[in-house]
Amino acid sequence: MLRNNEDKLLEDEDNPDPIKWRRRLRIIVFGTDTPAGKWFDVILVIAIILSVTVVMLASVPSIELKYHTQFVYIEWFVTILFTGEYIARIIVTHKSSNYIFSFYGLIDLFSTLPTYLSLFIPGSQSLLVIRLLRVLRIFRILKMGHYLREAKFITNALRASGYKISVFIFSVVILVTILGTLMYLIEGNVEGSLFTSIPTSIYWSIVTLTTVGFGDITPQTVAGQLLASIIMLVGYAIIAVPTGLVTAEMIKEDRKVRSVSKRCIECDAEILDSKSIFCSRCGIELKS
Questions:
Q1: Could you read off the pLDDT of 41-99 as tens digits, one per residue?
Q2: CA–CA distance, 246 with 243 (Å, rounded to integer)
Q3: Which residue from 146, 135, 113 is spatially nearest to 52, judged by alpha carbons?
Q4: Which of the residues 45, 139, 235, 243 has the least number of beta carbons within 10 Å of its own beta carbon?
Q5: Is residue 35 a contact partner of residue 277, using CB atoms and an 8 Å limit?
Q6: Are strands 270-271 and 262-263 parallel, antiparallel or unpaired?
Q7: How far is the C-alpha of 193 from the C-alpha of 65, rounded, in Å?
């Protein structure tokens, strides 16, 4: 869809001025492989990080009291910047509804709205709501996937390994249920034991299997301690499984990307994304 949108703007150089302006804007907004597009993405990523940092710092009372005015200025600057970006994406998208109702389109909207909504919720009884709206701006960090090309690489790898990870998690749920039930049978009748129910024992089993080890519940019998030791050792082996699954898919994705890569005829840079229209190094238009 994105390639088709860009192609529609690149195919006609004799369009009227408004169309040419729209074409240039679309190349900046969606052309992540052009120098202007890369700078556009870098500025927005910096704005996201700045906004999220302000939200976190504002939650510290002493810092909020001292720098409240500066935080307000920064937030409105970032909000106006994101509003302009949101409007620009609607203008240059071939079918605006595709963007507005897409995942990133909704994230762009909902991460910008809180600042405006806080203006229309006056009254002391609404302070808690305003605070909630301000904290919701932290979700702007989800916008970063918009501008990082590597995010697509990781997303594809996670999507490809999703079924295997789902089966793995389901197997772990069965395992901790069995282990928690066994621990309840062993420790449940011991005087002073904290394994008072099967759900509590399953909670302990999850904490132990993941090697978190809160220490709020501990076995008292020798059999319980032996079972706990086995669960700890199994936990170390299990932790490596999802990492290996995702790593394997990332290797496959990397090989797939490189198998369709091409080179720029101007600067000989390797173009890993086969859908790229411009060279990320020199900015020249790539030939199909």
A1: 888 888 888 888 888 888 888 998 999 999 989 989 989 998 999 999 888 887 888 88
A2: 5
A3: 135
A4: 243
A5: no
A6: antiparallel
A7: 48
Tell me the CA end-to-end span of the chain in Å, nearest whole number.
17
Q: Bridge partners of 263?
A: 270
Question: 17: how many CB neighbours lie within 10 A of its CB?
Answer: 7
Task: Tell me the C-alpha to C-alpha distance, in Å, between residue 146 and each of 132, 149, 153.
Answer: 24, 8, 12
Helix (H) or strand (E) holding 63: helix 61-92
Beta bridge partners of 285: 278
Rounded to whole angstroms, how far apart are CA atoms 131 and 114? 10
Task: Tokens for 90, please give them.
Answer: 């609607």
Task: Quote the pTM value.
Answer: 0.58
Question: What CA–CA distance (Å, rounded) separates 283 from 263?
Answer: 13
Where would I find the H helices in 11-60?
17-30, 35-58
| Chain length of the chain | 288
Q: What is the pLDDT of residues 139-164, one digit of tens each?
A: 667 777 666 666 777 777 888 888 88
| From 20-24, 79-83, 98-102, 228-232, the region with the lowest mean pLDDT | 20-24
Q: Are 165 and 245 in contact (CB under 8 A)?
A: yes
Count of beta carbons in the 10 Å neighbourhood of residue 92: 22
Q: What is the mean pLDDT of residues 135-140?
A: 66
Q: Which two tokens stand for residue 97?
A: 């509804």
Domains identified in the chain and CATH numbers: 2-147 (1.20.120.350), 163-242 (1.10.287.70)
**Which pairs from 226-232 meet CB under 8 Å and 24+ separation?**
227/179, 227/182, 227/183, 227/186, 228/183, 231/179, 231/205, 232/208
CA–CA distance, 118 with 71 (Å, rounded to integer) = 15
The two tokens of residue 50 are: 């700045």
pLDDT score, position 7 = 43
Please report which helix (H) or strand (E) contains residue 95, including its range. none
